[in-house]
Amino acid sequence: MLDLNTEFPIDSAISYLNHAAVAPWPQRTARAVTGFAQENTDQGAMEYPRWMQKEQLLRDQLVSLLNAEHTDAIALVKNTSEALSFVAHGLSWRPGDNVVISNLEFPSNRIVWESLARYGVEVIEADISEGSPEQRILEATNEHTRLISISSVQYASGLKLNLKPIGEFCRRKEILFCVDAIQSVGAHQFDVQDNYVDFAMADGHKWMLGPEGLGFFYLNPTIMDRLKLHQFGWHMVERQGDYDRREWDIASSARRFECGSPNMLAIHALSASLSLLLEVGMESVELALEQIVGYAIERIRELPKARILSTTDPIQRAGIVTFSIDDTNMSKLHQSLMTNRVICAHRGGGIRFSPHFYSSTETIDRAIDVLREKL
To answer: Is 128:137 a contact under the CB 8 Å cutoff?
Structure first.
């Protein structure tokens, strides 16, 4: 029987509400890292073939988490920004092309597209602050739009988009569809095939409960060859391990984006974390997260002068609740919360709480009690 209190033995004096930034590890992940370190200390890389099996297991887990076609569609990358750069600087652009993003994107999903200005590529920001965000994005496109790149959940507001109509539109119009999924995967069910996603990427250190420095890059297998490569090495060739062979071919799988040695330590850690999410089941994770977010919204509304800045519509709501307190300096309030061990973020003009599925109502209650003391 899975005991979440054992998996997450966080100090009861801490209200950890910052999974949209960096998440705590489950106990099994700490054990995996400790075990891997001890194995290295005791016997070096004697069991490297078994480590490679762990790498394959992680790819299998990601296929399950994303409903990807197969493991050949998954590359293991350092972070979300690296994967976005693979797309932005792998495509062949023409002067006059444009990319549509939203006006609420995290810098990772804005700067990379703005870097294409040297090729004459325009970045169009759809204002999704009001109305239907999906419709606003589609209305921002024109005959020169080559790609839409959008965060499945906006980092500051927690706005969750309905990706399917965007994906269907892109498929009809022959526009590429790129999704920064870092605020979704591990928190919500995510299906690259059902949503007609061409590229998706996410770091493992937020909702997937893993370490920093390892994430995934999903590519629709039918368009993989459209991306030019800019990094080369021993790991991205078709006949990996045949070191005496002088001739080489680019790997037919997404491994072509992994130029060098894999991060085996992080692979062991992230695989352990994903094993927990898959054991619980993403449907159950999503339901539990929706319930604790709903509870947090109710408690925040009890505070004097509190305003919920995030959407409260359950359909558009993710694991993020951002709020402000009228006539209060939000930056100073955030510093005070952190000092009192309410771990949260200052985003979008307010305080951002981001619990996870295992978070308790007691965690929310303690945070609210600290807030009352500081107001």
So the answer is: yes
- CATH-assigned architecture of domain 4-17+281-374: Alpha-Beta Complex (3.90)
Question: CATH topology for 29-279?
Answer: Aspartate Aminotransferase; domain 2 (3.40.640)
Domain limits, CATH 3.90.1150.10, in the chain: 4-17+281-374
Question: For the chain, where do the domains classified as CATH 3.40.640.10 start and end?
Answer: 29-279
* Ordered per-residue pLDDT tens for the chain, 375 residues: 788 989 999 888 999 999 999 999 999 999 999 999 999 999 999 999 999 999 999 999 999 999 999 999 999 999 999 999 999 999 999 999 999 999 999 999 999 999 999 999 999 999 999 999 999 999 999 999 999 999 999 999 999 999 999 999 999 999 999 999 999 999 999 999 999 999 999 999 999 999 999 999 999 999 999 999 999 999 999 999 899 999 999 999 999 999 999 999 999 999 999 999 999 999 999 999 999 999 999 999 999 999 999 999 999 999 999 999 999 999 999 999 999 999 999 999 999 999 999 999 999 999 999 999 988
- CA 232 to chain centroid: 26
Residues 6+ apart with CB under 8 A from 371: 303, 325, 333, 337, 342
Does residue 266 contact residue 79 with C-beta atoms inside 8 Å? no
Stated pTM of the model: 0.96
Look at the chain and count its residues.
375
371's tokens: 């807030």
For the four alpha carbons of 244, 246, 250 and 256, in that order, the dihedral sign comes to positive
Q: Is 125 exposed, middle or buried (0-12, 13-18, 19+ CB in 10 A)?
A: middle
Bridge-based pairing of strands 345-347 and 350-353 is antiparallel
**Which stretches of the chain are assigned E, i.e. beta strand?**
15-16, 74-77, 98-102, 122-126, 145-151, 176-180, 199-203, 215-219, 306-308, 321-325, 342-343, 345-347, 350-353
**Cβ count within 10 A of residue 179:** 27
